[in-house]
Amino acid sequence: MRSDLLKHIHITSLDFYKIWNAVTKLYLSNPIRHAYLLFDLIYYSDKSDIHILLKNNEICGYLLVWKGAVTRGVHIWGDAESLIKYLPANTPMIIQIYSEKLLNPILNHLKPLDANINVITHFDMQVDEQSFRPYNPERAVQITDNYLKHFIELKKVQGRVLDEKTAKDIILNWKYYGFFVNDKLVSIACAYIRLNEAWAIGDVYTHSEFRGKGYAKIVTSAITQKAIMTGARAYLHVRKDNAPAISVYKTLGYRVFDERPWIFYNIKQ
User: Fold this and answer.
1) What global pTM score does this model have?
2) CB 227 within 8 A of CB 197
3) 7-113 CATH, one of 2.40.50, 1.25.40, 3.40.630, 3.40.50
4) 200-209 pLDDT, tens per residue?
5) 233-239 and 198-206: which strand pairing?
6) Whole-angstrom Cα distance, residue 169 to residue 163?
């Protein structure tokens, strides 16, 4: 087969190594942009469905579907219009789109289905060692098994009920920092992707009764500092209309580097 022809490869947990060189080359060209792809191949290949387009043995488009939760986490990048048909439209999805030209084709594919569809613009923000401005990170505590009950209680307030095993797995796999008030965990932030070049920061949440006191800024500062200390850049996603959160992140040195549409897709009951 000629190497310059477009080739579609459906990656499974058994054969992802076949395109390892192509994936790592793409990742290193822009670690933040392609961190989800590399991370899921390394750590969640058994929970990921990945379609990749190759041209001249280089990746020119991909569709990544993380199946580790009821709501599928989807990433579609590059010249990937031909991959839209592989979207798991029978399940709820959050679709991150990395090319504006893919938005309308995806919507046209999904709209005939009986589902609720919302498009919400998000900012991508990043910070590095030069721009990071820490804010009392020493006041945050790393969440370990010792704080399991506190963590479960706050996640319940957040809207997610966890059993102990699931909570332990989350704490083990995602590095969390928290802030306590009178032995009550009231604010958390975590890194859910940790690679040498990039850490993804997320699940920033503060109990509603304790907001406006700078606690989210402290925990975000703590996990960001941890990323910076490893030599990585930290990045996060935030809704464009979430002005309070954007303000917090900017005071820590985060800056907007991209603006992208996300599609929230839920099947009607």
Assistant:
1) 0.92
2) no
3) 3.40.630
4) 999 999 999 9
5) parallel
6) 10
